[in-house]
Design a protein that fits this description.
Blueprint lengths: L8 H13 L4 H13 L30 H7 L7 H14 L3
């Protein structure tokens, strides 16, 4: 399975350099970390407290354009984040005067 991780640049560079120095592939090192973590051999991360929910009155309002995604999400529930489809739909709606 492939995935994308968002990690700090400096951490990535240090990890890449260390694995290269040790003659390892980054992929194999990450797999080893995951296996150790799943086996309970790696420290569990500290749990982060969630901020208290605010009432609807104090939440900032979304801009009007944010509502344009709702019909698209309903139309394509299996792939609502396909930005190309969304852009095509918005352009087509603007041409027809719907948006």
């Amino acid at each position: 399975m492939k995935t994308t991780l968002d990690i700090p640049d400096t951490l990535y560079r240090e990890f890449k350099a260390k694995t290269a120095t040790n003659g390892e592939k980054m992929r194999n090192a990450v797999i080893a970390f995951i296996v150790a973590y799943n086996a309970g051999e790696w420290p569990q991360p500290a749990t982060r407290e969630r901020p208290a929910r605010t009432s609807r009155r104090t939440r900032p309002r979304l801009p009007e354009w944010a509502g344009m995604a709702v019909p698209f999400i309903k139309k394509y529930p299996d792939d609502p984040l396909d930005s190309e489809k969304m852009c095509d739909e918005i352009v087509a709606a603007r041409r027809e005067g719907l948006a």
